[in-house]
Amino acid sequence: MKYLLVLGGGSARNEAWGNECVASYKELYDMTFFIHYDHWGTEEKNVNIEAELEKIKATIEGAGEGEWYVCAKSIGSILTLMATARGTITPQKCVFFGMPFSVVGESVLHNDFSIISSFTVPTLAYHNDSDPTALYDVTKEVLTTHASSITLHTLSGDNHDYLDFASYRPTIESFLSLS
Question: Which pLDDT does position 41 carry in this prediction?
């Protein structure tokens, strides 16, 4: 079995991003799982990291044996790094969009990038060169310094949306070696 785990960004609008990601890539996998964050639809602005890591763990344990692949945006990429470091998931490959090191480097990671340095999963990271939320220069520096398994794929863009799934698909499909 080949499983796709989809983890969106923190804001509630990322529910639509996750649904679109699933719709765009689901036929490449036997099953897809999209984690809906608890704070969506509430007044809370931030992801409850521990609660969402527990949901990821329950999803993995409930699915049974298989190969896991991850598509994650923004805070979802950080959750993937954390879940991998904890041994919750061992992805075959990952695709990340807009990794937010400029936002979480200090507040979530406390400037400890060991979860990135120890991350050995082949990963493709899409990042807009003018992303106003996840600053490109910070992401590039962190990946260059700490992440030998993550290949940065720079896009021209001034947003944190990452919605052009059709244009990403050929590169992602080739990277994942799925047909």
Answer: 84
Nearest to 89 by CA among 120, 60, 49: 60
The amino acid present at 101, given as its one-letter code, is F
**Radius of gyration for the alpha carbons in the chain, expressed in angstroms and rounded:** 15
Residues of the chain below pLDDT 70: 178-179
Please, what's the b/e burial string for 103-133 (b: 16 or more CB within 10 A of its CB; e: otherwise)? bbbeebbeeebebbeebebebbbbbbeebeb
Residue 165: what pLDDT?
Answer: 93
| pTM of this prediction exceeds 0.85 | yes
Give the integer Cα–Cα distance in Å for 4 and 48.
Answer: 22
Rounded to whole angstroms, the Cα distance separating 36 from 34 reads 6
Beta strands 91-97; 67-73: pairing state? parallel
> Which pLDDT belongs to residue 177?
72
Question: Which alpha helices (H) appear in the chain, and where do they start and end?
Answer: 14-25, 49-63, 75-85, 101-107, 114-117, 136-146, 165-176
The secondary structure of residue 28, as a DSSP letter, is G
CB distance 101 to 134 below 8 Å: yes
| Residue 46: CB atoms within 10 Å | 12
Q: Which domains does the chain have, with CATH numbers?
A: 2-176 (3.40.50.1820)
Residues comprising the chain, all counted: 179
3-state secondary structure of 120: coil
